[in-house]
User: Fold these one by one.
Assistant:
Number 1:
Amino acid sequence: MQSQLDYRDTPSLLIDVEKMERTLKEMATVAADAGVALRPHVKTHKCTALALRQLELGARGITVAKIGEAEVMAHAGIRDIRIAYPVVGEYKLKRLAKLMERAEVSVSLDSVEVARGLSDLGRRLGRRIPILLKINAGLNRTGVLPEDAVTAARALESLPGVQLVGILTHEGQALKEPSRDGAKQVALRVGAIMVETAQRLRQAGFGIEEVSVGSTPTVRDIARVPGVTEIRPGTYIFNDFNEVTLGVASEETCALTVLATIISIPADDRAVLDAGAKTLSSDLLSPPSARKGYGYIKGYPDITIARLNEEHGILTLQNAKSTLKIGQQVEIIPNHVCPVVNLADVMYLMRNGVCEGQLEILAAGKNR
Ligand SMILES: Cc1ncc(COP(=O)(O)O)c(C=O)c1O
């Protein structure tokens, strides 16, 4: 059921529509100019209307992490879905089978065990499920090392219900860099690793058509590496304070803010917001930064959101106390926008300070 609360009834998420549209169009141009496909990761907005808008602006398809996200998106009519996450276990495979009745689905994976489950499903359905081999290009999360890619691909060859169509990585390690230039170096390095790996696989006889990469801090550089075929940025749609700290976004290009209200000023050096960890998430900044706290309050660079409880955000005030009042509302740029959206039910669409509608976050909480 859609919430009918007023956006001023806080805490609430506001989208500056013009800022978001500008970034969406810019990313479509980045992809078109580089001659690569754009496949945005929808885990950032979790919202069918925004995924459809990305497709309308030229995205080839979407990326999801979880089958629950894919189910919501397929229900809205989205047909081309890449699950950039290993699908493990019979319950997930059952849901994947149903999903494949409605959408063209591809899956990334890094093990023969996961591929075998998919292959059995593919065989039952009488088709080959497209798979992408996940490469660990430095994030050290999932993925096979580039030097092991040919061996890993050989292990998949005998499986009749899957078809290896490409390789995929996520260069999220760029977010730990201290600067935009550091992120650029990661982009170029990972781009080169992926293109070389694809080349070695082709030389070994594998039909690698897709070289899929992407993260917001690197995407504008890695898209232009010759041989890359697809980019999958997610966070770019809203940006956040991580991206600002890294230098790939600015306060001006952050499209989503949390509107919160000062509910208490119990001491000279302390005020309290009605947004805690259940609104802002507990994520601190990723890039190395002198800035502490759980988000950036616009217009108040000296105030830190120093602590969070579930429903309270505790501000440490230096000399700003006199400017804050109980009942006052402030806008916060989240450190990491994706978990913030996942914790909400609606987002309000704002244009020039006027609310022109709201979007239901239909895939919020769809974490399985
Ligand atoms: C596999 C994968 N692809 C793409 C992305 C998008 O990255 P970003 O949110 O930095 O744009 C993510 C982010 O977590 C991811 O895990």
Number 2:
Amino acid sequence: MSTIWQQRAVRPTSSDNPRGQAALGLMKVSQGQSLSALMSELEQPLDSSEHGFLRDLLLGSCRYWHRLNAIAKMLLDQPFEGNAEVLHSLLIVGLYQLEIQQKSAHAAVHATVEATESLGFGNRRSIINACLRRYLREQEALLEPLNDNPVTATSHPKWLVKLLKSAWPDHWQAILASNNQPGPICLRNNARQQSRDDYQHQLHQADIGYRSGELSRQSIYLLTSQNVTALPGFPDGSCSVQDEAAQLAAEFLAPQSGERVLDACAAPGGKTCHLAELADIDLTAVELEANRIPRIHENLARLQLQAEIIQADASQPDQWWNGEPFDAILLDAPCSATGVIRRHPDIKLLRRREDIDALVELQQQILTQCWRMLKPGGRLLYATCSVLPQENRLQIERFLEQRDDASLQALTAPGNVEQTGLQLLPTEDSHDGFYYALLTKNSKVCQ
Ligand SMILES: C[S@@+](CC[C@H](N)C(=O)[O-])C[C@H]1O[C@@H](n2cnc3c(N)ncnc32)[C@H](O)[C@@H]1O
């Protein structure tokens, strides 16, 4: 006789329980969807007071997925199949609360088992209950083999551990450890509105703890988690949320008033806005993805800044460029995002080794085409939030070998670990991982 869960024709699409929603979200991420694209849909059936909890469950379950998935597999006699696959993700969410959050065992098990009901699989509650209780009983024996394997000890995919180990023999373990710590909130003071000291004074008066960043002139770290929209002057553009290493992009490109500047891969517009904050420039922002364009408009509007926004492919300038060269170009290239895993832990599940080669190829195409649009004597800043040399140093070394009209300018910042360009690695309680190379186009042009 078939059970109710086998008879279900429709895959569960939503639940009114935050653990149920986290399980649905985690399942979708494990099937290839990004958390940022899913988040508002997942929040929708829940009360707004539960959104923070849902977010914690989702980010944490992704962050520790490789470890918790291995435990879940050991606990299950046979895998959940078909529509019931969501229960595998629910088990991971339950394990996250016990193993990582170290929640009270009774409450976490009870609430996770209850969530089976909201997903329409109440008849399978005994399996989730039995697995979580077995985990609590046999934790030590179950975890022991996991600690010897870097994939399950650090909760990263095998291919990434391998690449990081070979690229950064002295730093790979620190990178993996940083990736598992949520990054701090970093603000960029809007220098058009006030000095950093003035804004820090406003934070002090609002009783908000902060410290000044050391890499970027306008950076301020908040010492505790805050609703940023409630920060002093935020709705009117007093500051933006932006990692400190990301703030170096506009500082390194150093736009000058009157210059014609291109931001070639612009959404959501963090660096577009920073460029426009620094000088009165003629700014063009190009972005391929139509659904990412509204965020650029929103950010510019809040900060009361202007730019021309074009939805286009930066690797195909003949389709949109009017032929007038740019004085300065920021190419914040699409990349593996391996420097910002702590802020986007779903990258651990979404990215594949083969993606890297495709990204390197795309970056090369965009770089070559942006170079065509640069004035002789102009400068181009190549940037990625990657820590992989393939996308960074090796990309730039190959470009320099192929061109005799390009020169690399020196960039300095504390923490640089690279010779060609500047590589920052993600650092606990501080900045993300970023790469920068500042290229200038020799006046004797050879295209
Ligand atoms: C690293 S993100 C840019 C972040 C942005 N500079 C900021 O600071 O907010 C890269 C962006 O490039 C866009 N993109 C990818 N391929 C592109 C292409 N061929 N032309 C233009 N934009 C592209 C992606 O959609 C993504 O929004």
Number 3:
Amino acid sequence: MGKGHYNKIAGTYDQRWKNYTRRTLHKLMEYLPASLEGKRVLDFGCGTGELIKILLRHKPKLKEVTAYDPAEEMLRQARNKLEKLPERQQEKVVLLNKQEYGTNFDLVVSSSVLHYLPEPAETLLHFNSLLKGGGTLVLLDYTKNSLPVKYFRWLVRWVDPAHHQAFYP
Ligand SMILES: C[S@@+](CC[C@H](N)C(=O)[O-])C[C@H]1O[C@@H](n2cnc3c(N)ncnc32)[C@H](O)[C@@H]1O
């Protein structure tokens, strides 16, 4: 469901969700380890690659970003965007449409994805299996207590038919 919806809206996603994306991803950056020097990062549900760009800009010493998204069209947007970056940054990024990202990540991030998952507990275990010992998991999502989800669930579903469930903080 999520994948089909995102394949359809990929071309207009950045424009439509510009403010939301900017606010959420900058908030997410506050929760990352101060240094990512030499570290391997997985961005799960990377969408159009905005977080990849921010990571490369603010954490230039990171080793690599592997970015996975099931929606091919969202990845196409990410690829187009990344092609405009300097080569030394592009070389650090691997974009994947399949869950063939291996393991041993220092950091797994997933932003605004959890609410699409019918089996979030399984995904959390999956994230755990991808991390090195002592690695970091950073999840960002809107919660069940957020105003639109609490009072206007029908509206959330209308704007985003792929929405499955939000969680308590
Ligand atoms: C709201 S967008 C967020 C994109 C990006 N993480 C960001 O914060 O800008 C949600 C993304 O989750 C992806 N997605 C949907 N279902 C997914 C799943 N089961 N596993 C991983 N990603 C999924 C969609 O294709 C879409 O690109």
